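Model the whole thing, not chain by chain.
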Amino acid sequence: MTSRRDVLRGAAALPLAAPFSRKLLLAFAALPPSMAVARALAAAPETLKLERFVFDVRFAESGAIAEHVGHLGVALSPVADDLMTLWYDDLDLKWRKAPMALAGVTLEDALFVLETFALDRGMHVVYRGQHSLVENGRITHRLAGPAALIERLRPLPEDWERALAKALTECPLGAVETTRAELVTPGAALSLRDMPLYSWIIAPRTVVATRVES
Amino acid sequence: MAILPPGVSAESFASAIREFQDAIGREWVFTSDDDLYSYRDHFSYIKDQPNELIPSAAVGPDTTEQVQAIVRTANKYKIPLYAISTGKNFAYGGPSPNVRGSVTVDLKRMNRILVCDDKRHFALVEPGVSYIDLYRHIQANKLNVWVDTPDPGWGSLIGNAMDHGIGYTMGYYRDHFGAHTGMEVVLPNGEVMRTGMGAMPASQSWQEYRHGYGPDPCGLFGQGNFGIVTKMGFRLMPAPEHWRNGLVTVPKRQDLIPLIEVVNYLCDLSMCGEPWYGSPLGQLMGNTEFRDAALAFNEGAMDRLAASANLHSWQVELQFYGSERTTLANWEYAKELVARKVPAARFTDGESLKTPLTREQIANTTGPYPTNMRRNITQGVPGLGIWYMTGRTERNPNAWNETHIGLFSLIGRNGEAVLKAQKDFADVARKLEMPSLFPNAIQTPVNWYQFAFLMGNGFGLGGGDVSPAGKLAATAKLREVLRENAKLGYGDYRAPPILQDDVADQYSFNDFVLRRFTEQLKDAIDPNGIISPGRAGVWPAAFRSMRGGMRS
């Protein structure tokens, strides 16, 4: 019998009709097994197909990244203080049918809420970045995730929002090698104030197997 | 990081896992680190430490019968179980068990809303039903009832009630365990028991008369470890036709005493929903003279400085449910009563809204005054906004996320007790050299439970030291706080597993007779001690040597 580990290791190369482990989807027993894999792999066989990009409308940087991601064809979900509307009207309904891949740039609280929900539904965080304003006006970017994704960000240009937007849409699939990096960009970034922004990617565990912890 | 339940061999554990798989299906038995990641408390002060409270496995049953099978297997192999509903008990331990190596019984798949009656006003649900789920069900079916939800709506009705959680509407409904209407429980021997009228097979009133006949054991299951609750009924508030709120302020510190007296009267006559106390003087904390006065509890100086800033010392936001006329009458009556006791009180009319509320009305933040209330929650609408306290946000500039433990002490429900507790808590903080997150002299209680006040212990722990050693030191300080509070008569109502023995120690009357009594029962009902050993400080004989183990 195919084990869950087997499924994870071979996720990137799975045929669309491959067995899908129901145990990843606690509370979603009626889910058609191959749907998530199919959806994630259908459009781009080598990178994660994002179905949502969640961004905090209160920050210019997240807005700029969202604009770039939107141009790449990903549906945008603006949020601010309370994720209830996003959850109630959108994600809960979609995730009841199948897990999905999504990315975002938000404050830490939004990431916490989405990550917690995601863990219940067979998904996990596969990339996370913290973008903090440092005293001398520079921004420090602490990144963790697929090595291929992070390497694409070295060196991070001053127009880091555009580079990050592109990288977030090119997350590799499968059991990927991960790495951590700390990069610095110039720029005042006044809208960050004293609140770090978090960029992240949440993906079905069957599609990107390697979780990144905070 | 494979671990075993305490005292269980690898061979026995493997056999138990096979039996769990046979009982509920291989797909619903989880043993890998990856699978068990979501059963960790990510706020834990001992995360990644050798004593972190993590399970050895998790099982996800779908039916009561499967829960029974799990319990029987656990008995056979003497494996401790720890049941969670949705596992969202963050700040109080999340999904983590009291005993490292327990098998987590994850009840999320049991997510059926069995009954939701908007004529008799109750629901019967399984543990996996969240407040958001029930709200969605009510909305989809246009039912004429509201949900009394806690701060985050993602938790389970049963799980929250089991932990004595609370909400924000009318008093009766806010006490979620108190508002239950009977339960179905899988006992430690695997039998299924129903309480109240549920014990009568043909009864049509299980959710209407929870006492049944004879002793009612339900209290043993709240914060208890006498069984796994698989169904539970709850009273639901009928949807009111109108919602209204209003703000009362009183000028002097001592005015808090008559203010609370009046609000208690209104609450206990069921004339208003949850009152939300506060102090307008927070805006003076940047004033060194006022701050010094507040830190010294110099009431005369505080009153003088408040008056010169044209600020009142206390406020309470009141909310009313009923018709437009009755809510107005209750608000007018509240004003009349307060004015009788405190002639200098001021009143601000709030919003007056016909229900059902629109999305725009629920989200509106431009009322006549800035509200501190969980506004949508008082209107029966679940939210997720409370997680602003996770990480650095505009409403949480100090990033409390590394100090996220909920500790609230019971204090007397009158103004004198509040003023005394403010000073007592400040004295404890000074004695233990713990920086208070807010000057205690303007701290106010929460009236979550209709007939009780709780007041938070807001301490900045560890001076920002979030290293394992810093967290260990902070936890040790918290234990001292609990001991000092107990000497002053302040007991806590809830705690994460790492502090549950310490809170249980506060309840020491007559040489801990209450604990001895419950442990006698525990040993009789659960001789192998398999159901959540250690929960709320109740340790069965088989695990009793672990009492206090989290202190080392």
